[in-house]
Write a structure and sequence with these properties.
Elements lengths: L8 E3 L1 H23 L1 H4 L23 H17 L3 H17 L7 H15 L8 H6 L4 E3 H21 L3 H4 L4 H6 L8 H4 L4 H21 L4 H18 L5 H7 L9 H10 L21 H19 L11 H4 L14 E11 L5 E4 L4 H6 L1 H4 L4 E4 L2 E4 L19 H17 L5 E11 L5 E2 L37 H20 L14
Parallel strand pairs: 4-6
Antiparallel strand pairs: 1-2, 3-4, 3-7, 5-6, 7-8
């Protein structure tokens, strides 16, 4: 087997083509997001923070009317090859800024895009077909490590996504069956989705694809077959899921695995120009010096960078509990589409000094029904015999879901801490925040995600590891039961909540009915 030489010079046309495709795809994605910016970034949305980055909560809310044009200009520079590395740095910094603002909006392909943007700061992708090359001269080759860096990120996303699928739920076809239930009426996939074996077929073929595709793309003997599989895989995903630009980015990444110099030969064949590269394999005949800069300086950095990305996704093994249930160390680990959580959240603020209780208007529905003028600044209201606390910020529709705050214990605790601060500001002397967070993972019976009897705002949270107030997932339970009818779903949830409340009612101490706190 031929030894991989990271200093070997390879044709730059592969990096050039991927740079252009990346810029065009992200431009289209950004224009779409900017169009929907008013719903994606509402001004009154509560913003949590990553556990290790609490300072991000104090960052100002991005003005997308300023940020979006800045990113579009940077992407134009990247696509055209004008100040390419500077443009990539500007895009990546702004993108990461928005990315870090709210972990409840995390998506694996956002993480991948940020990594690829950073790679374009390092690699020299403007050697040809760029405005930079008009002023600085052509550079038809680059060291192989620059191409391998981009290849490695895609190979890792695929392979680690496959490793994560080696779990009992996925191997039994869950939650694939729920996804297929949603496309029974699809004109193309409907007939297939209605077959009794379709869920396990999709689960096992998806697992096999993720584990095998890096090898199929990297081997010249199987590359054509692998590229064909990526088209089937990603185009199918566009019909099953709403995952934005990722399927098209995955298709564009195929150019990274083509035989070196293939994009150049495409252009020469289309224009009828004779080949300008003497090497038939697209590799220039350049022998690097024995002590090249890569070996002396860049190679140690590449090793450290690679080891980090190889090890970091496995940190959840050090945490107690089912990772898809606790969400502990799940982000940045390429665990994609492995769970379906049906969630329901009710939060109650209690005054330990008086015994009074207020339901939390989490999405601003009570405020909308009453009108801001009637509520005023008090934000402690009574509607049809029920007391409500109306916070100054609310949960967005996305946050009030399994992928947002409702399904993540750490983010849920941050929401409760915010509500406790709101209660103090409104005059509640000793607030306690109790959550009835009910979840069903991959069709299991509903159960509490966090202990409903604890004051979640006051509970400690470890820097790393599963908090003790997270209720362990009951593993020995049937899976795959998805109550799609709202009546059936709410009946099961209410039965769980009322059953718990009835067992704790007798032990609840009586409190005097004192007047409402002044605000």
């Amino acid at each position: 087997m031929r030894r991989l030489d990271l200093d070997e010079r390879v044709d730059v046309s592969t990096l050039v083509l991927f740079r252009i495709l990346f810029g065009l795809l992200l431009t289209g994605e950004l224009l779409y997001v900017w169009h929907h910016a008013r719903t994606d970034f509402p001004a009154v949305e509560f913003r949590p923070a990553y556990s290790l980055l609490p300072w991000t909560r104090s960052l100002p809310q991005p003005d997308l009317d300023l940020f979006a044009p800045l990113m579009l200009a940077a992407l134009a520079g990247l696509t055209l090859g004008l100040l390419t590395r500077f443009a990539a740095a500007v895009f990546t910094l702004v993108y990461v800024y928005v990315f870090l603002l709210d972990p409840s909006h995390f998506n694996n392909h956002y993480y991948l895009i940020a990594l690829l943007g950073a790679c374009f700061v390092v690699v020299r992708s403007n050697g040809e077909a760029s405005l930079d090359s008009l002023f600085r001269g052509r550079s038809p080759t680059v060291p192989r490590w620059q191409l391998a860096l981009l290849q490695g990120h895609f190979a890792l996303a695929y392979f680690y996504g496959g490793l994560a699928k080696l779990n009992g739920d996925w191997l039994r076809g869950e939650p694939v069956r729920m996804w297929l239930d949603n496309v029974h009426d699809h004109p193309l996939l409907g007939v297939f989705a209605r077959q009794p074996w379709s869920d396990e077929f999709i689960a096992w073929t998806g697992l096999t694809f993720d584990l095998a595709i890096p090898y199929l793309l990297l081997s010249r003997h199987t590359r054509a077959f692998g590229i064909g599989l990526t088209f089937v895989f990603h185009l199918t995903n566009t019909q099953l899921f709403n995952i934005g630009v990722f399927p098209y980015l995955g298709l564009a990444a195929n150019v990274l695995f083509l035989h070196a110099g293939t994009p150049r030969r495409w252009v020469q064949g289309f224009t009828g120009q004779p080949s300008s590269e003497p090497a038939t394999d697209g590799t220039a005949d350049v022998t690097p010096p024995p002590q090249s800069s890569t070996r002396r300086f860049l190679l140690p950095l590449l090793v450290v960078y690679s080891v980090f990305h190889l090890v970091f996704p496995f940190r959840h093994w050090l945490c107690r509990g089912h990772v898809e249930w606790t969400e502990e160390a799940k982000r940045f680990s390429w665990r994609m589409m492995l769970s379906y959580k049906d969630t329901h959240l009710e939060i109650e603020v209690r005054d330990k000094a008086t015994g009074r209780r207020w339901e939390v208007d989490q999405m601003g529905l009570v405020l909308a029904s009453l009108g801001a003028g009637e509520v005023g600044t008090a934000r402690l209201v009574e509607v049809q015999g029920r007391r409500f606390l109306i916070p100054s910020r609310f949960l967005s529709v996305r946050q009030q879901s399994s992928r947002g705050i409702e399904g993540d214990p750490r983010l849920l605790k941050q929401w409760c801490e915010f509500l406790a601060d709101e209660a103090r500001r409104l005059g509640i002397r000793e607030p306690a925040v109790h959550c009835r967070a009910v979840c069903a993972l991959n069709g299991r019976p509903y159960q509490f995600l966090v202990d409903p009897d604890v004051d979640l705002a006051a509970e400690p949270v470890p820097t790393f590891g599963t908090p003790r107030w997270v209720v362990p997932l009951a593993l020995r339970q049937p899976i795959g039961d998805y109550p799609l009818a709202d009546e059936d779903r709410m009946a099961r949830i209410r039965a769980l909540i009322e059953g718990h409340d009835s067992t704790t009612a007798d032990s609840r101490p009586a409190r005097p009915d004192e007047p409402e706190p002044r605000t």
